[in-house]
What we know:
InterPro entries: DUF2635 (IPR024400). This protein is an alpha+beta fold. It has one domain. Helices cover 19% and strands 24% of the residues. It is built from two helices and three strands; from the N terminus they run E-E-H-E-H. It is elongated and about 65 Å long.
Amino acid sequence: MMLKIKPAAGKAIRDPLTMKLLASEGEEKPRNSFWIRRLAAGDVVEVGSTENTADDTDAAPKKRSKSK
């Protein structure tokens, strides 16, 4: 699963694998312990989900008619 994140205001965060700074417009990164800790610490902010999420009303089960 992936996260779309960007640095929090006034922060510069390096990707531990590439050693490059996280782009200010945001990047997709793996949802791993490093990025989860950065989110919890407020160093990065999530800018959107990369998953295709359906509206909750679409996911609701259909009502069944009572049979006699």
